[in-house]
Amino acid sequence: MSTPLPSVAAPRGHHALTVAALMATYVQAVNISIPNAALPHIQASLSMANDEVGWVFSSYIAASAVTMSITQWLAGRYGRKVVYQYAVMIFVVGLALNTVAMTSIQFVLARILQGLASGPLAPLSLAILLEVTTPPRHARVSLAWTVCSLLGISSGPAIGGWLSEYYGWPSIFYFSLPMAGFVFLTIARQLSEKRAERSQTFDFFGLTTFSVGMIGLQMLLDRGERLEWFASTEIWVEAIASVVGFYLFVVHVMTRKEHFLRTALFKDRNLVLSTVISFALGFVLLPTLALTSPMLEELLNYPVDTTGYMTIPRGIALVGALVLTSLVPAQVDYRPFLIGGMTLVVYANWLMLGYSPAMDWRPVVEAGLLQGAGIGMLLPALARAAFGTLDPKLRPEGSALINLSRLYGSTIGIAVVQLFFYANTQAVHIALAKNLTPYRVAAYMGGSIGKPELAALNGMVTRQAATVAVIDQFDILMFAMLVVIPLVFFLRKPRPAG
User: Fold this and answer.
1) Is the pTM value of this prediction over 0.90?
2) For position 198, what pLDDT does the model report?
3) Considering the domain boundaries, does residue 84 fall inside one?
4) What is the predicted pLDDT for the residue at 14?
5) Does residue 312 lie in a domain region?
6) Is 108 inside a domain boundary?
């Protein structure tokens, strides 16, 4: 007769800490997308140019990726409680600075500060959740953590659209203040301090060179069109910084045994392939929101709050598919779920290519619902693929690598679609307007036409060109997911159940 294992009691105050950790996860995620539907109000208030809109998202995400990389070192060096509290305080300062920003540069700087503070919140929240719950509940609490993160990203546009329409765009940042206050007080009262007995070393040179390479590439893509590419000294500086940063990082990785991304991670085929797929997933996840809301608001004249509401089915389908797929037994092969999720995402983006100025809300909701279901199916299957063959000792770093790839995929994706959007808008405008002259227009209209009428016609052509350019960007997102589908066939089979 077997002896039952002794139960492990949860620490005191674990209920409050669980709520606080999940709330912090939600808050840092919802602030990624909450400005999405409110962008017309923010642009009008801050005189923000159209090609600066992508910075609202990419600045937050890129800054978050940098501090997320050093979270483990910070917690070991200074203590997780101290790091967590300072992160929440700086996050609140970023929220306040967003509301008082008077220019687009001030707003972007505040978003960068927010992003820097948000980086440690998600990984430390998960670590706290796993500590305050008993081992049999770890799978369930990890799922709850993932759901809160995705729910934050999915619900952000609806909340931001409604608040900005009725209470002004600064209210979208006031929304997070009460929750941040609750998290700070709960952590201060309930969480015990924990830090490493020995100071851990961290590869700051590797992180710095990699970050310089990524930031240089990001700025190059964001600013290139406005500054006429290599006719500008700034673009040359950013290009050189990116090339030198990536070069030094590659040399550093090849010549040192230990760095902030351990070489052992890249010896696991499943993890490497899953990282590439995760990058493609990030490339699709947030750029879709960054394209859809401006299209609905500026080109199809939907109210800001209605635009936000139209993202709700996508979020519901995403969370629902995530939960259902996570409940599938571990013995079931995950690869059909990967292929099924990718197929749904590709099909949804193919439906988006059929958008037109004459459509109603149904095609947008249908495509969003299918894309959300595909992403929700893909995420848990991708986690099983990445960690099913990975050494358990490497799983924390593997998780960080997967998250970083998804974050950088989103930032690069936003930059790429913005870049091609403005280039395509100009090309389509030239193609449509080349015959728009006073004499030819007057001939077709059966009378003379003046400059005001011609300007109105030019506005119509510009709107049509922008609509065509937006729809063309969904083709890029579809291709990004389509090209990684064959990688699924190179993943190793799941290990048989023990």
Assistant:
1) no
2) 55
3) no
4) 75
5) no
6) no
Give the separation between CA 68 and CA 85, rounded to whole angstroms.
15
Contacts of 291 (CB under 8 A, 6+ apart): 417, 421, 470, 473, 474
Q: What is the pLDDT of residue 498?
A: 41
When pLDDT is cut at 50, 70 and 90, the band that residue 7 belongs to is very low
34 inside domain: no
Q: 131-169, pLDDT tens digit by residue?
A: 888 877 877 888 888 888 888 888 888 888 888 888 888
pLDDT band at residue 256, thresholds of 50, 70 and 90?
confident
Q: What local confidence, expressed as pLDDT, does residue 440 receive?
A: 52
Identity of the highest mean pLDDT range in 50-59, 84-93, 257-266, 415-424: 84-93
The total number of structural domains in the chain stands at 1
Domain extent at residue 247: 203-259
